[in-house]
Specification:
The chain is built from 3 helices and 7 strands, in the order H-H-E-E-E-E-H-E-E-E. The protein is an alpha+beta fold. Helix 1 runs antiparallel to helix 2. It is rod-shaped and about 85 Å long. The strands form 2 sheets. It has a 4-stranded antiparallel sheet with strand order 2-3-6-5, with no helix packed on it. The chain has a 3-stranded antiparallel sheet with strand order 1-7-4. The protein starts with 5 loop residues before the first helix and ends in a 19-residue tail after the last strand.
Amino acid sequence: MKVLGFDGLKTLSDNLKQTMKTADGLSSAVSGLGGDIQGLTGQLAGALQEVENCLNELDAVKANTAVRREFILSPASWSEEMEMETPIAKYPHRYVLEVAGVTPNSRIDAVLDASSIDVAAACGLCPTTETADGIVIFRSRSAPTANLSGQLYITQGAGDAGASDAQTTEQKEE
C-alpha cells in the first residue's frame, strides 16, 4: 500500500470535494439515480472526513521548523568566568542572551552577519552555543571590541512545545 505525503493527501481531498459537488449536481438532474447518488455522496463525505483527519495528524507530527531571531551582542555585556574548571575553559568570556522559547533541548544555529566575522575571529568566538531555559550562551577567548550581530535559527528539541513568537530582548533594529 502506498502512503501519500501531505501534498498527495491534500490533492486527494480536493478531488474528493469536487467529486462530491459533481455527485450532488447529478442527483438533482437524474431523479431515477438520486438514491444511488445520495449514497455515493455519503460515502464520499466519509472518505473526505478520513482524509482530513489524516492531514491533521500529519500536520501535528511534522518536523519542527526553525524560528529566526536577529541578535546583537554588545561588547560591554560580556562577562568573564574566573572558575576555569568549566568544560570549555579555553573560552572564559561569556554573553547570556535572553531568547523567549529556548529550552535546554533547543538547537541553536547562530549565523553571524558578514560585518561581524573579523570581530568574531579577533576575540576567538566559540563555534558553539549553550542553551538553558530562556537563554542562549555565547563564549569567547576574549571579550569582543565591537558588536557581534547575526541571526539565530532556533529548532526545538524533543520534549519542547515549540518556539515562542516573542522577540529577543536585544532585538536588532531593522
